[in-house]
Each structure stands twice: as structure tokens, then as C-alpha cells.
Amino acid sequence: MSRFEGPWALILGSSSGFGAATAVELARNGYGIFGVHFDRRDTVANAEEVQRAIRRAGTEADFFNANAGDPETVDIVVERIIERLGGIEALKGAAEKGSPIRVVMHSIAFGTLKNYVGGPRATWLTEKGLNMTQHLMANTLVYWVQALVHAGLLGRGGRVIAMTSSGGHRVWHSYGAVSSAKAALESHVRQLALELASAGVTVNAIQAGVTDTPSLRRIPDYQHMIEYATRVNPHGRLTTPEDVARAIAVLVDERTQWLTGNVICVDGGEDMVG
Predict the structure, then answer these.
(1) CB-CB contact of 121 with 112 (8 Å)
(2) Largest Cα–Cα distance in the chain?
(3) pLDDT over threshold 90, residue 193
(4) What pLDDT digit, counting tens, does each position of 212-249 carry?
(5) I need a surface site. Which of 38, 113, 127, 129 has the fewest CB within 10 A?
(6) Chain centroid to CA 76: how far?
(7) What is the mean pLDDT of residues 141-162?
(8) Is 28 in contact with 57 (CB distance < 8 Å)?
(9) Nearest to 273 by CA among 222, 226, 210, 229
(10) What does the alpha-carbon distance between residue 231 and residue 244 come to, in Å, rounded to a whole number?
(11) Where are the domains of the chain?
């Protein structure tokens, strides 16, 4: 059982990029952080540093190094959250005061980056790769929200945030599977916003501008993407994870209950001119 009495956030994809920056920013705003990340030995230090930053901010961190797309991970994390928050009976009382998990952020960035038909047949996108990308980067939002609602962890006053990109409506070589997943993610956001309105939960997507993150650097020819975005952005620079994290910290305020079902650009005006 946790002695921490502040609000809690659950960040899916908490060890780098937008998820890591938002975890730290929310901690600075008084949130305890449950984090789910999937790191191997060579990158797990990133998750450890994020947890240290959260604790330096004076709150608590409880991270899970596991595949967020695995149903068993969902069950384990939900059970752990219930335990940390005092058990089923304690949750019933807490739910009357507001959502036990105040913020859920979906920032899973793991997909197949291959052309549909360009180049040799052996390099084309496969059914397995397409399905995996759709599952992790879009459908897991639905499954996590379902599990949290069913467990009584997400309710009135809850805020669900999903990270999308301009790839949901634009094209880039090798980005097709991710692009289709982002479009589906935005559709899931709208549907969840409709269905959760009566429960007092808002659901929005954040479309960040081009940001130099580990995920971006996996995209073939990402250097040209960076050069182009820097040139066209009205502010003359890329978006940073901290830009996005600060915007999310504002968006999850209790006074934003009438803002739901949107794709919100946090990009310094990049999309409107790019």
C-alpha cells in the first residue's frame, strides 16, 4: 500500500521521449507515476534515470519493464496498481472523490518501418509486421482503458492522452504501417471520448511536431525530416519532449473537462505550414 496521497498517472512508454518527459513533468506537478516500458540491458538505464528524476521531484515511481502489448502485462500492472492504492475497498472510497488514476498516457512507439511494395519483395511490409504495429501503437490504448475502467481505476475526472503524429494524415517512405496505426489511434480516441463522456473521463490525442527522439531516429532518412521541420516551423526549431510534456500538464487540469475527442497540435505551428 502506498503512503503517497497525491494523484497518480500511468504512462505507457515511460523510459524515453514524450513518455519520459511527461512522467517527470507530472511528477513536478505532484503526480506519482506508474510507468510501463520495454527496455533491454543497453537501454534500461534510461528508465532508471527517469525514476530517479521522479523521486527527486518528491513523488513516487513504480515502473514495470514489460511488453505493454501483452495481456499478462496489463493484468500484472492493474493488480499492482490496486495493491499500491490500498486494495479494492480503499479504491471504492477513492473513486467517490475522483478517478484513482488521474492521467493515462499512451506513448508506445514501436512499429515496423518498411515500404509496402517498394524495393525487393523480401523487404516489403509483412502481415505480421503490420498487425504488430497496429496492435502496439493503436489497439493497446483500447485494451488498457478497458482494463482500468473495469478495475475501477479510471473514472470521473480521469484524463486519457494518446500520442499521435502528422503521419496519421501524411506519408513518408517506410512509415505506412505506423501512419495507419496513428490514424486508427485517433479513431480510438474519438470513440473512447464518446463512450467515456458519461463517466466523466476525457480522451484526447496530442500531435507533436517533429521531435528528435529515439523513435524518430529509427525512421529511415530521419535527417531529412529534421531538416525540413526545422526549416518550415514558424519558430525555427524542432519540438522538444519538454514542450509536449508541459502542454500535457496543462491539458490534464481539472478545468479541462469539456475538452475531449480532439487531436491537439503541440508543434509550434509546424503542421499548419508544413
Answers:
(1) no
(2) 60
(3) yes
(4) 999 999 998 999 999 999 999 999 999 999 999 999 99
(5) 127
(6) 19
(7) 97
(8) yes
(9) 229
(10) 20
(11) 8-273
Question: Fold for domain 8-273?
Answer: Rossmann fold (3.40.50)
Cα distance between residue 22 and residue 179, in whole Å:
23
Q: Which of 6, 22, 12, 272 is nearest to 142 (CA)?
A: 12
pLDDT cut 70: percent of the chain above it: 97
Condensed to tens digits (0 to 9), the pLDDT of residues 10-62 reads 999 999 999 999 999 999 999 999 999 999 888 899 999 999 999 999 999 99
Give the SS3 label for residue 30.
Answer: coil
Identity of residue 237 = R
Distance of CA 25 to the CA centre of its chain: 14
Q: Report how far Cα 180 is from the mean position of its chain's Cα atoms.
A: 17
Rg of the chain on CA atoms, in Å: 18
Cell of 196: 467515456
Q: Give the per-residue pLDDT at 274.
A: 76
pLDDT value for 5: 83
Long-range contacts formed by 94-100: CB under 8 A, 24+ apart: 95/152, 95/155, 95/156, 98/155, 98/156, 98/157, 98/158, 99/153, 99/154, 99/155, 99/156, 99/157, 99/158, 99/200, 99/201, 100/8, 100/152, 100/153, 100/154, 100/155
How confident is the model at residue 48, as a pLDDT? 96
